[in-house]
Design a protein that fits this description.
This protein has three helices and two strands; from the N terminus they run E-E-H-H-H. The chain is α+β, with helices and mostly antiparallel strands. The chain has a single domain, classed as Mannitol-specific EII, Chain A (3-Layer(aba) Sandwich). Helix 2 runs antiparallel to helix 3. 5% of the residues are buried.
Length: 82
């Protein structure tokens, strides 16, 4: 694909002046080429839909390895498909 992704959990909450005024702990970074704009938007939309569910956020906060993160997203995808 033309998009790379990174994920991080901050040590302390960060105030990003979000609409809900909640501080942020889970950070996602998507980087892609100009040609991959539509893919970038599609991935961002999917991440947003999945992370809007509390169980995934809770699992991500407890993730210790990249495999934990990927597994959490795979589980969330399966739950959404049901």
């Amino acid at each position: 694909t033309g998009t790379a992704a990174a994920f991080a959990i901050t040590d302390a909450p960060v105030d990003f002046a979000a609409i809900d005024a909640e501080p942020v702990r889970l950070v996602f970074l998507l980087v892609g080429t100009e040609a991959a704009k539509s893919e970038h938007i599609r991935i961002l939309s999917r991440i947003s839909r999945l992370v809007s569910r509390r169980p995934l956020r809770k699992t991500l906060m407890q993730a210790e390895t990249p495999e934990d993160v990927l597994g959490a997203f795979a589980e969330a995808e399966q739950a959404l498909a049901r």
